[in-house]
Design brief:
- A six-stranded antiparallel beta sheet has the order 1-2-3-4-6-5.
- It has one domain: Aspartate Aminotransferase, domain 1.
- It is an alpha+beta fold.
- The longest helix has 15 residues.
- It is globular.
- The two termini are 21 Å apart.
- It is built from four helices and six strands.
């Protein structure tokens, strides 16, 4: 199963990724977040950064609902994320291969087209499937 170190390794392997200084992990491409630690908020208590849960950018509400309904053991949401294209992922429940797919997909949705093209071309030249 995956953990915060796997998130860090996979995110930093992607082109032009910057890690933002935080109590957990927070990765951006072109100044846009694509995966970060879940900032759990409980009324009356200080915010708790959960490095065992990743917040992933998913693009749109349809993708969000597909993940939440299709894999409820992996994904969840909270009312504070209503209307946002974000899901929370339980890292202890996901295989590293699936995490790589999710992090890469989140990066693709946030990266400028030129960077996505560069990644696709690099994948084609190495004989790997870029998707």
């Amino acid at each position: 199963m995956a953990d915060a170190d796997d998130v860090r390794r996979l995110a930093l392997a992607l082109p032009h990724v910057v890690e933002i200084d935080s109590d957990g992990f927070d990765f951006r491409v072109a100044d846009k977040g694509f995966v970060w630690s879940y900032p759990e908020r409980t009324p009356g208590r200080p915010r708790l950064i959960r490095t065992d849960i990743a917040v992933l950018y998913v693009g749109d509400e349809a993708e969000k609902q597909a993940l939440l309904l299709g894999e409820p053991d992996l994904f969840f949401t909270t009312p504070s994320y209503d209307g946002l294209p974000l899901v929370m992922l339980r890292l202890a429940e996901v295989k590293v291969e699936r995490l790589e797919e999710l992090v890469t997909d989140a990066w693709r949705m946030r990266a400028p087209d030129a960077l996505v093209s560069d990644l696709d071309e690099a994948g084609e030249s190495s004989g790997t499937d870029p998707c």
